[in-house]
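Hi R.,

Here's the chain you asked about this morning:
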Amino acid sequence: MSTPRAARVRWVSQALFLAAYLVLFALTVRRFAAAAPVPLFLKADPLVALAVQLAAPGVIPELLLFALPVTVLTLVAGRAFCGWICPLGTLIDLSDRLWFRRSKVRDVRRLKYYVLAGVLVSALFGASASFLLDPIVLLTRSLAIAIFPAAQLGLRGASEVLHAPFLFWPLEGAGLVQAQQLAFAANWMVLLVFIGVFALSAWGPRFWCRSVCPLGALLGVLSRVRILNKRVSEACNQCGACALTCPGQAISADGQTTNPSECLQCQRCVATCPKQALDVRVALAAAGREGRLDLSRRRLVQAGALGLGWAAVAKTGPGAKQAVTGVQTSSETLLRPPGALAEEAFLDRCIRCGACMKTCPSNALHPALHEAGLQGFWTPILVPRIGGCAEGCTACAEVCPTEALERFSVEEKDALFIGTSRIDRSACIVWNAGKYCLVCDEHCPYRAIRWEEVEGARRPFVIEEKCVGCGLCEHHCPVQPVAAIRVFSQGDKRGWSRARQRAYRNLAENAET
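And here is the predicted structure, written out as tokens:
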């Protein structure tokens, strides 16, 4: 029997949306950051919008607006996003045939609803864990931090070994790969999580989507009121072929009823039915639909308690702001990208997608490990020794989907204070050895180094009102392995308004004139 038209259209839809996602991901570079709608898929993710909205104070209209189309689609057609659009779901479909599966697998479809409950409770208490398992965020982070750098390295190596620069140079010329080879801390950890998502398919097709994915759970809840539903005609002989082929285990064994929260609208059942007894139509009645979700209240409470526990540990551990003193107990080298909100607001909004890290042309941004504690795990930090923040670059804020990094212009960048440099006089070759060196001064784009006569010799000093903490001085310092000039977070003024930061810098400008 030929595949019905709806199934063929679904394959085309999956291919087009996956291609669109990969193209937008490829455009997550400095050259195209402002011109292309790079974070479109992340912004359209309803779970991202809901989790960020619960964690962050106030309404964020842009996130809610972008998430509206997928929400409306779900109310009309159920989990069509999972079956027709989701790029991670498409990749799982492509890899499903590679796995040898156990003959009997326990039904754990309800697990994703408990995961969703834990994620939403953690977000409600200001320490969202959605970044760990949201499919669009997980896929973007995995590509940005683990897969793309490895692919770039392989392509660069192949072009050199084969003496075929045409394999690499066009991409570099178009700005789709970085001139500097990307490398990230904890890339192995990100890669293991990504591989684990696909390895779950050993327990059944689309096991991740069916049993773990919190976005799928959220869309499943919304699907309870969907308008398009499956209809079973009298031609059905209850052979069960549709139930066997359903990747979501949404169809009863006799094929007569369908659980709307589990149905991915993949049309496999329609394509498989030997009697052509299935079709999808507008139907508001409950006929042919399973009833409630049938979740365990005890397990929901347990999931909520786990989410609350995550929030409690995150909010009271290293990197947290102490309620009594108001002091942020973070690492002295916790440097955020320019444009980052004040720390608490930044942590509420950042979804750890890795887009800002991929787009950074100097490979200066890396996922935090211990620097910001559990609450700031995998959030972006600036590591100046690896790369400094380029003067004319605004790409990281351009690709941020949640405005955890507020957009800024090149002209505003010299008054966005993320840290302050300090000179270690015991290591500096000018101070310690009396040698001639101008490296920090030559590479400072904000004229934050001044020279004074000390004991008959010219010595460098940092002008704090001008130093924004870009790290270019530390990156280029010739002293190895630890630079003689380093950037510390004590100069972080992200809690100030931009007008106040500008006035602070103007103090130094006026003093000079």
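One quick note: Residues 411-513 form a domain with the Alpha-Beta Plaits fold (CATH 3.30.70.20).

Cheers,
M.
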